[in-house]
Known about the structure:
Layout: E1 2-7, H1 16-27, E2 31-36, H2 42-52, E3 57-62, H3 64-72, E4 80-85, H4 91-95, H5 102-114, E5 118-126, E6 129-131, E7 134-138, H6 139-149, H7 151-157, H8 159-173, E8 181-184, E9 190-194, E10 196-200, E11 206-208, E12 211-213, E13 225-230, H9 235-247, H10 249-253, E14 258-264, E15 266-279, E16 282-302
Parallel strand pairs: 1-2, 1-3, 3-4
Antiparallel strand pairs: 5-6, 5-16, 7-10, 7-15, 8-9, 8-15, 10-13, 11-12, 13-14, 15-16
Amino acid sequence: MRILLIVNPRASSVTPKLEAIVEKALSEKHEVVAARTSHRGHATELAREAVAERMDAVVVFGGDGTLNEAANGLIGTDVALAILPGGSTNVFARTIGMTNDAVSAVDVLLDALARSAIEPIGIGTANGRAFLFHAGLGYDAAIVAEVERHQSLKRLAGQALFAFAAVDTWLRHYDRDRPHFAVHLPDGTTIENGYYTIVLNTDPYTFLGSRPFRIAPEAGLGSPLAAITVQSLALWPLTQVAAAALTNSEKVRSHPSVDYRADLAELRIVGYRPFPYQLDGDHLGDVNEVTFRHIPDAIRMVKP
């Protein structure tokens, strides 16, 4: 196989030593061209070059943000996408069953390539940009923005930084007194008073250490989207929802401050004022409106 290996050298778990190990292992059985990302959107550019050069696969060694960028360059093409975990959480890699250890993951990936274990997967899009596992709007995206403001600590602090950011954002960086948007569903239903919404293409939403946050069991790579909207940021309801996500996803969906919808081919979120959003853990700024769509069989994915 002709493979483009995209490496994000700034990803939390990527080191020069691991980068060399990965490239050597892949090169023993495949023709590999390695490229390192240097700026935002670079992985998308590199993936599109791989399509133009008729590569067989793009392997991403980085975090979920780098994977998202590469995926956006491969939609509707024959070039397969594969992931080696190099980030702090690696949500998508773990969701599809990949080990979270990069060295072990190379062996798993080589085995999958040898078996031609490549399947088409569905994706979500938000205002035309693809996401693989989830989009966050409102408070969720504000947390991601806070993490990115402390990017230099991410490699050292890991998931502790996300916990700090969640508390700090709740206390100081997000309006908890007024709702931020309304969610408009295809059947004409409108969900008012949205403080934050998560639109999911897969489940779990994320991981806390080895424990998954499961909130949308209907979401999957072969299914339409699911959406969960939280209509209060009061401390006790928010704590209940977070605790339930670690223990009983049904309690999340049935909580009185939560609206849950599944099997959504599309939906639209309209702000009462500009609100932040993120895709696959990558903060993309503030918008007034986001239109979501599900696209089945959009990308060919190498699966373990």
